[in-house]
Amino acid sequence: MLQSISKSYELIFQLLHMPSHARGKQEKDFIVRFLCSIDKLLFGNKSSLESLADTIQHTSFRNGQTLFSSGSRITSWYILLSGSVYVDGKLHHPIKSLGRPISEEDRYYSSDCYCLEQCDFLVIDLKTACQQSSQLSSMDSSITLGLAEDSVRL
């Protein structure tokens, strides 16, 4: 089982490192299935997930790196897949949503986020995701409804 999860992560990381314009239907479908498999992301409709499949990327941070800083503009939504981070006096482990604004008034991070070990993240550039979504309000509300309880509010 653990080996199967590891291979799935390896494949998804490869796909997410491809430029989004180079991803075909098969790759996008795999990304959508992967997003659906993450319990915290069982939200919204299929078009919302397909829109995310066009914009989502993978990134890694080393131990001690800062993911974001208090007072900096919120530009990305992070989903912690591996490792651990320290935010607002609390330790967080996978799978955790970080840095996603809860409301339209949230424009700046209110705390720092530090990686406590090697971390892998799914990263959604919020501006690009909103521009590519023809149904911005339905995508945004489904994301908010699906993750509001488990997101680290920043």
UniProtKB/TrEMBL annotation:
All copies of domain Cyclic nucleotide-binding, residue ranges: 45-87
Highest rank taxon of the organism: Eukaryota
PROSITE patterns: CNMP_BINDING_3 (PS50042)
SUPFAM superfamilies: cAMP-binding domain-like (SSF51206)
Record's protein name: Cyclic nucleotide-binding domain-containing protein
